[in-house]
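INTERNAL TRANSFER SHEET
From: sequence group
To: structure group
Subject: NADH dehydrogenase

Please process the attached sequence and return the structure record in the designated field. Keep the field labels unchanged so the import script can parse them.
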Amino acid sequence: MTRKILIVGGGFAGLWSALGAARVLDLQRKAAHDVEITLVSPRAEIHIRPRLHETHPEQMAVPFLPLLDAVGVKFIEGTVERIHPADHSVDIVTASGQTVAFTFDRLVLTSGSRLFRPPLPGLAEHAFAVDQLDEAVKLREHLEGLAAKPETAARNTFVVVGGGFTGLEVATELPERLRKIFGDTMRPRIVIVERADAIGPDLGPGPRPQILEALEQLNIETRIGGGVVSFDANGVVTATGERIDAATVIWTGGMVASALAAQVVPDVDRQGRLEVSEDLRVTGVKDVFGAGDVVKALTDDDGHYSLMSCQHALFMGRFAGYNVAADLLGLPTKTYRQPFYATCLDLGAWGAVYTEGWERDVQLVRAEGKERKMLINTQWIYPPAAEREQALAAGDPDISYA
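Return from structure group:
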């Protein structure tokens, strides 16, 4: 009788979970001869979300079927609607619209996160986003279409709501994106609205001088200490009462975990994430593991927990994949640890700022930072080639962190 491992989600955590589990089966061929790994995702491609703010977001989709075929992982194109952990089953709506039940022996939940959209007046109708590929493409089409509109102050004004990591990358990329559309004839007004009392609140004071220097050089305005309270077709109103007329408003208001997490265990944290043990097993649930944005996982012995980032999702996936396969085969699992932590914030034409450690000590800035960002975004976070040996090696949880 076939034993089944099901991985829900085809993002960074899901894809690397598949590689990690396949690697264990390859190493344990005799014991694992009857084990089958299946990955279910709405698309047979991974979207490189950290790059969706760039000029050509439609180029940020990487097909992964050849990679799954190389390591012997099956694929279902569909969306998981319900998880029944007690019954060891899920309900999948396939690409053809059929609802099918899929039973599993072990499950890895890697369904990721989505953009947090509070019920602010006009947000859903009037704000753009770069969270998903289709949203990023819609923004690109809008920006390109502005060139055909009459020149007004509102047409030339761009409001980015949220001064965190994503908001900063979106805002600082805009000048170059607009120059490619309009040439040097337009002088855009770009405004970041951040409700906290400082730009980049979650990034801390370490890289803030470089961030502020970049914003000044790129002529980007900031409004801090009050978020946007309403949106309409012609602009926004902030909590301070300021009206900003703008034809383009981009929402970057943080992330929440996939709603599937609460179907596994209703007790989730404020971001909707599941609690997991040190081997990424969902606390209180038999035979279910998690990785990526749907879990809050301890990364080191100093009390730091994972963030919603591809950096953590990718490495966590390797451990989750290893552990779900090892657990099914009766082998010891591994404790997930990822002590190395770094950030690299793209700041457009200014360059980038690269930090290391949870205190975010600045290591590289401007052109050197940009070079590191290019390595991360164009090489390090991309899936391996669809060659079996190389692909299985990429699933090794003991690979170097730095």
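Handover comment: The chain has two domains: 3-115+255-339, 123-251. The CA atoms of residues 279 and 335 lie 5 Å apart.
Transfer complete.
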